[in-house]
Design goal:
heterodimer, A: alpha+beta, 5-stranded antiparallel sheet, B: 306 residues, Rossmann fold, 14 helices, 8 strands, 42% helix
């Protein structure tokens, strides 16, 4: 998904990190963990920095990688919307952005995983963002 | 809070008049109903349902003279819902059932299994055979190879619970309770009218839906799977078991199709009665609850009754 872009750490003054999605088992299919390791150079960066992406709405998201003893890093991932510190989330915007981030991830993981299958799954289950 | 939300579901109390009971088992708070008197039956549901799945099965079995116990799996229904996926293991869920059965000191027990109630209930039965009188299996499996070709496909099964996709689709959007069950019954209008809200109502927030994407990840797809050894043990123990067994299957079940799964149970347990085929897809109790109750009662009568 071209609409999701990796960005440098955004200015976070007067913002808060709002937790919007959590994955406890990123390596359930190891190719998903490998995608994040490759994309954010995690073998070098480790826990020192989150990854940051900008979603189609313009909102920036922090990808916080989680480690667990005895498991390959990262074992988990938390996604935070970086939003105005005292303003409530626009849940519809977040939902569309997360769908775009999932598409970006699936595209990056690559075959046999396809964005077409993701979209077909979303349509089967009538996810609004899947159209 | 969840229980009170159910009270607002139209007609809920008419369909589910049973008193809520709770037990502390294996460190968790488990909800169950316990109706009637006589030899006990344990009715076990799977993902993403709860005891409500058996609402049309319970009254005829009570009338037939049985004590019917229907627990909600930890993580579903009105039972405690752990917040971390690491809290859920197949062995842990078997231990949860074992804890309940020992606490109630159930003997001469008939274990009725559906979906993940199969691996957990049969796991309990094989590790506590002295307490068990008979088994019933419905739309489930008990061996380490992928349960169905469906479970090996990317679309929609593996995509649905893939990393991050699972928490999004099943967590944020509750697609299994909201859409998956609906697609897996025959009488969809009736289901939508009578049951949909009761299944969605007990999974009100993303955090409460954790087990709906954790269970799919426990289905073994290859030799490296976490549950591989437990399923291999389960299959081997069942092959040795002589417990009277009843096989009931949904005629329209497209995921655990009768020709493959009911027949495999029959090969594994050649002494089993059945398969009896009834109207139903995967959630066959939604379409054939009273008939399932009748089959179970007749089967137990044939085993010497109460």
């Amino acid at each position: 998904m071209a609409d999701v872009a990796i960005i440098a750490r955004p200015v976070t003054e007067s913002t808060r990190h709002a937790l919007v999605l959590t994955e406890d088992r990123l390596g359930h299919y190891p190719e998903f963990r490998a995608f994040f390791v490759r994309t954010f150079d995690l073998d070098r960066v480790g826990l020192s920095d989150p990854g940051f992406v900008r979603a189609p709405s313009g909102v920036a998201y922090a990808l916080v990688f989680v480690g667990r003893s005895g498991e390959p890093f990262p074992s988990g991932l938390e996604i935070y919307a970086i939003v105005d510190a005292l303003e409530p989330l626009d849940d519809a915007v977040v939902d569309k952005d997360l769908w775009a981030i999932l598409g970006w991830m699936i595209g990056g993981v690559g075959a046999p995983w396809t964005v077409e299958d993701l979209h077909a799954t979303g349509r089967l289950y009538r996810i609004p963002a899947a159209g | 809070m969840t229980a009170s939300a159910l009270e607002s579901v139209e007609g809920f109390r008419d369909k589910w008049p049973f008193a809520a009971r709770y037990a502390r088992v294996n460190g968790w708070r488990m909800h169950y109903v316990d109706e009637g008197a006589g030899d006990p039956l344990l009715l076990l549901h799977g993902n993403p349902t709860w005891g409500y799945l058996y609402r049309d099965v319970i009254p005829p079995l009570v009338s037939a003279g049985y004590r019917v116990i229907v627990p909600d799996m930890i993580g579903f229904g009105l039972s405690e819902k752990p917040a971390r996926e690491q809290a859920h293991t197949l062995d842990g869920h078997i231990a949860n059932l074992t804890g309940l059965v020992r606490q109630l000191d159930l003997q001469r027990l008939t274990v009725v299994c559906h979906d993940w109630g199969g691996p957990t209930g049969l796991g309990f039965a094989m590790s506590n055979p002295a307490r068990v009188r008979a088994l019933t299996v419905m739309s489930t499996w008990a061996w380490p190879t992928p349960p169905a070709e469906f479970h090996t496909r990317l679309f929609p099964w593996r995509m649905m619970h893939a990393p991050l996709v699972g928490p999004y689709l099943l967590g944020r959007h509750n697609v299994l309770a909201r859409r998956g069950v609906y697609l897996s019954v025959v009488g969809r209008d009736k289901f939508r009218r009578e049951a949909q809200a009761a299944y969605e109502g007990v999974l009100p927030d993303a955090e409460t839906r954790l087990l709906t994407w954790v269970w799919p990840r426990w289905i073994p797809l290859d030799d490296t799977a976490r549950a591989q050894a437990r399923f291999a043990w389960l299959e081997a123990e069942l092959a040795k078991s002589r417990l009277p067994t009843l096989i009931i299957w949904g005629r329209e079940d497209e995921v655990f199709d009768a020709a493959t799964f009911a027949e495999r149970f029959k090969r594994l347990l050649p002494h089993a009665e059945g398969p009896h085929v009834v109207t139903g897809r995967h959630f066959l109790q939604e379409d054939s609850g009273p008939e399932i109750a009748r089959l179970i009662a007749a089967f137990l009568d044939g085993q010497g009754g109460m």
